[in-house]
Automatic annotation (TrEMBL):
Family matches, as InterPro entries: Bact_HTH_transcr_reg, Chorismate_lyase_/UTRA_dom_sf, TreR, Tscrpt_reg_HTH_GntR, UTRA, WH-like_DNA-bd_sf, WH_DNA-bd_sf
PANTHER family xref list: HTH-TYPE TRANSCRIPTIONAL REGULATOR TRER, MANNOSYL-D-GLYCERATE TRANSPORT/METABOLISM SYSTEM REPRESSOR MNGR-RELATED
Gene Ontology MF terms in the entry: DNA binding; DNA-binding transcription factor activity
Top-level taxon: Bacteria
Name the record gives this protein: Trehalose operon repressor
Keyword entries, A-Z: DNA-binding, Repressor, Transcription, Transcription regulation
Organism: Garciella nitratireducens DSM 15102
Entries under Pfam families matching the protein: GntR, UTRA
NCBIfam families, alphabetized: trehalos_R_Bsub (TIGR02404)
Residue ranges occupied by any HTH gntR-type domain in the UniProt entry: 2-70
Protein's GO biological process: negative regulation of DNA-templated transcription
Segments forming a coiled coil: none
Classification via CDD domains: WHTH_GntR (cd07377)
Amino acid sequence: MNPKYLYVYNEVADKIENGEFSSNAKLPSEAQMMKKYGVSRDTIRKALTLLEQDGYIQKIKGKGSFVLDINTFDFPISGLTTFKELENKIGKKSRTIVKELELIHPNYFLMKQLKISKEDQVWKVVRIREIDGEKIILDKDFFRKKYVPVLTKEICQNSIYEYLEKQLDLKISFARKEIVAREATQQDKRYLDLQDYDMVIVVKNFVYLEDISLFQYTESRHRPDKFKFVDFARRKF
């Protein structure tokens, strides 16, 4: 026989998955759940703790337990997945909005990231990614002009990688990635539908060609409730 807290956990999880408890809804109080299920406060707290650990709810001290949006999108950590490829995989209505496209000389920060000098030129591309009517990703891409002589708004709205690989015949090989949580900037707040979130998940990509030339630096800034970053790991002996 399963422990009582697992029964409570399973019933609440099912209601969240079935939409009976909608995203951002407040769950009944501990006292109300104790009465409903005929169990102790400790049992309810164990169930709520497990629900929080599994990403169903967020407990806020003094306010209660709130349902999280479980309809997150899997974004692979390994591999180089473009937004267009993600778009095709999730099958959701989406849109790319190009906010900035310009050829610039790098500042000190970009010189350091791309390992270039101030005489080099860099394409700066800032795009908003909208899924199901919500602006949830802000992509800031920087490409070395040495490898990407021309970029247009039309290319940036469609797929830059498709253009690089099929038109320019660039052999994109691998990337070094960093994933960090950062406080949302004013630009994040202006361009993204952050709701009440004041943090974003930033994925930094340093992308290399087949000849190990570093040609791209990217910051992809994600609303934290909309994505799971997933990987497959195999233990080596």
